[in-house]
Amino acid sequence: MSFVEALIPFALILLPGFAVIALARPLWVPVAGVILGASLLTALALGTMGQPCTSDAAGCGMARGYEVLALMLGVFILVAAALAALGWRLAAGREAGLGPRLLAMILAPLGLAALAAVVFL
After folding, report:
1. What Rg value do the Cα atoms of the chain yield, rounded?
2. Could you report the per-residue pLDDT of 3-51, keeping only the tens digit for each?
3. Burial level of 20, CB count in 10 A (0-12/13-18/19+)?
4. Which of 14, 81, 102, 119 lies in the 20 to 30 Å Cα band around 20?
């Protein structure tokens, strides 16, 4: 199994959390979701990065790189969900319908990915 194939289930687990954070109307739901997601990603980072490596140097570096890529995917989804929740509230107000919320849910990850492409390329 390739690394990309291993990331697909991880992303599918994160997508319901993304939808809950991005689409929820009560303000406490996205705030609680971001706090919970950040704490889980922090615990995952501390747990995986704190383990000693039992392989050669090249294998250790590749394993750490894969772990960081998985964590970066989680951080990307969490930040995109928070931006989507903030975006539709700023653009359409708290009583926005499903259309503006879905539009923000689509545009936030695309805008964040475009920003990342400009910064990192």
Report:
1. 17
2. 777 778 877 888 888 888 888 888 899 999 999 989 888 888 887 777 7
3. middle
4. 119
53 DSSP 8-state letter = P
Mean pLDDT of the chain: 84
**Burial profile 27-49: b = 16 or more Cβ within 10 angstroms, e = fewer:** eeebeebbeebeeebeeebeeee
Q: Compute the distance between CA of residue 94 and CA of residue 112 in angstroms, rounded to an integer.
A: 23
Residues 6+ apart with CB under 8 A from 67: 48, 49
Please report the pLDDT score of residue 1 as a whole number: 58
Both ends of the chain: CA-CA distance in Å?
Answer: 28
- Sequence letter at residue 24: A
pTM of the model: 0.81
